[in-house]
Design goal:
- 2 copies of one chain form a homodimer.
- By secondary structure, chain A is of the alpha/beta class.
- Chain A has 15 helices and 8 strands.
- Chain A has helices at about 20-30, 40-45, 50-60, 75-85, 100-110, 120-125, 185-205, 215-235, 240-250, 265-280, 285-300, 305-310, 325-340, 355-365, 380-390, and strands at about 5-15, 35-40, 60-65, 90-95, 135-140, 150-155, 160-165, 175.
- In chain A, α7 (about 185-205) packs antiparallel against α8 (about 215-235).
- The longest helix of chain A has 23 residues, at about 215-235.
- The model of chain A has no long low-confidence stretch (mean pLDDT about 95).
- At the A-B interface, β1, α8 and α9 of A face β1, α8 and α9 of B.
- β1 of chain A pairs antiparallel with β1 (about 5-15) of chain B.
Chain lengths: ~400, ~400
Amino acid sequence: MDNFQFYNPTRIIFGKNTENKTAKEIKRYGGSRVLLHYGGNSIKKSGLYDKITQLLSEAGLFVVELGGVVPNPRLDLVYKGIELCKENNIDFILAVGGGSVIDSAKGIAMGCKVEGDIWDYYMDNSKVVPAALPIGVVLTIPAAGSESSTGSVITNELGGFKRYTGGEIVIPRFAIMNPEITYTMPKAQIAYGCSDIIAHLFERYFTLSPNNDLTDRLIESTITTVMNNGLQAMKNPTDYNCRAEIMWAGTIAHNNLLNTGRIGDWGTHDIEHELSGIYDIAHGAGLAILFPAWMRYVNNENIDKFIQIANRVFGVDFPRENKELIVDAMIEKLESWYKTMGLPTRLSEVNIDNTHFKEMAEKCVVNRGSVGNFKKLYPADIEAIYTLAL
Amino acid sequence: MDNFQFYNPTRIIFGKNTENKTAKEIKRYGGSRVLLHYGGNSIKKSGLYDKITQLLSEAGLFVVELGGVVPNPRLDLVYKGIELCKENNIDFILAVGGGSVIDSAKGIAMGCKVEGDIWDYYMDNSKVVPAALPIGVVLTIPAAGSESSTGSVITNELGGFKRYTGGEIVIPRFAIMNPEITYTMPKAQIAYGCSDIIAHLFERYFTLSPNNDLTDRLIESTITTVMNNGLQAMKNPTDYNCRAEIMWAGTIAHNNLLNTGRIGDWGTHDIEHELSGIYDIAHGAGLAILFPAWMRYVNNENIDKFIQIANRVFGVDFPRENKELIVDAMIEKLESWYKTMGLPTRLSEVNIDNTHFKEMAEKCVVNRGSVGNFKKLYPADIEAIYTLAL
């Protein structure tokens, strides 16, 4: 087991009607002048926007609004948010939405506290962001895990770069999570969310760090839970328990608990960011397409790790003729789960051909040389994985 | 799934040589005048005491020492610690030891901030402790999970009461956990520790709250890890990975993550506290004796929960003639694990007879009427469980 630090101080407030506590929590963490940050119309249609603005106003909080966050959130809006915060002496950012809104809020929170351009920190994430405004979250989409994570992923349309930065300083102070709020999500988004959650778990599972039994088993438990409850949620989107399982699993999958004692891989996320950076497809769809391809490409780096998950999660049992067949069967079971969830598993299904493979593979390693840890991937490897995913 | 709040801000600093960071962490959390709290001679023999005191002194921290914490830590020493802290304007308590030392430190930390007698809060834990001095931990015994928990259990020899209080305010700021430090533990203590950890998991597993798949599976994973690595640690106490698994599992088992969405039972802990309050036997031994008896007494409250753990953790598979036989087989497997670990599974093995059963059963419910949640236990039930454990 590798040495590690684990620190996650987000206060999780989980369950029915918990959004009623929003104003109280903002005040607990010292907020008085709030930027209310959100996406499009969905929170207006669902009534959540009205509820939250009323709560903040009743509590006497000063509020400035910035909506308009889109999936694969943009740098432009982050700049606009920074300007708004500075003009209005904002001391707290409330993100009402999913991962895109939260990541955008984190970009703004950091941008308010750095000298110079926050984008420099995304393009070179070895640069440490010194501070950030405090953030709180009312989560509407369980997927990205950004509600208690250290990270923010932002897309700069200038050049089509989708990059990551963050640190302890942007872990949200609180995350309000009411599974009922997720009932209005379109079914496709439930599937994208489950795919993203499972991807976070895979990235942490496939490690070359010395054996780490507890973390492996906790990840396996979380994958199993999401796979089972994901199928159930597609059938019955208003099954509370099942939506609650997915929502809580989404947080657990990405709050760093499940990479204690190890270095995760993250190659597939980096390769996917190039895809959704250029084509603007849903992150969860891109991951469903790329993970099987990545697994086929890298499994011989440590095939026993694949055998373990085949056995414990996918119920692919011994004896089989050889290890390769077990892994094949496991990847097929995973693909079949993606399909049942209504997700694509090939680039051709989302009308992407090989036109930009070379360009994406090269851009993927800019400033870092390679991506991934389970197997270090260079542009030729990345191109090969895109090709396997065709 | 029940509504819940989860908040655990302890900074876990895990791995080899991490004790070198002690002074730096105390300073991070604003400490300058430190009470160094510990138990007996073991940290002096192992060299840890010298290392820590040197680090604190080099860092220019003012230090007052209070050693002498015993298993089932005593109220008398808590009173002494409170006095010492007040006399010396202490602003930080460093606990170097296991659960007893940490619980004693928590008692002192709370006692410094309450008007009146801290014991009143233990005897009536509906009374909210308003504040506490900050605490840091260098953990030497993985067992109690107190290094990141909200609780403190203290014994008042006057009346033989062993009682619990706590709250968010006593969650340690940091916990330094180097598995190598645990190498010098006597083997019996490894076994007591594993028994305590597994007991924390059972207490959280057996709930009447609505079904909660993820938490169930995470608990099962942690139990499996502790059972496997516990056996390995008894064979080879200096197997680093295996000691690391147990140490990290001990924290996970008790940092409240694994009772999200449910109300735990805790009846067996309460019944055990009476035993170790009067007889001063090791807590881990008392739990190994009482859990099988408790399971036999209560399993028909929700036998399917027992079937689930029998199947997923103990490998007791279907088909069997009936559910009762599956549960019997599971409890026997658990007893057999305790025995292999060198633990007692009957009161008679530790020379306890029925002399005080009635008295203990009645004292157990003082101020609370009953204990346990999976099945509410009244004095007659508690006496029956002691009798099953004879």
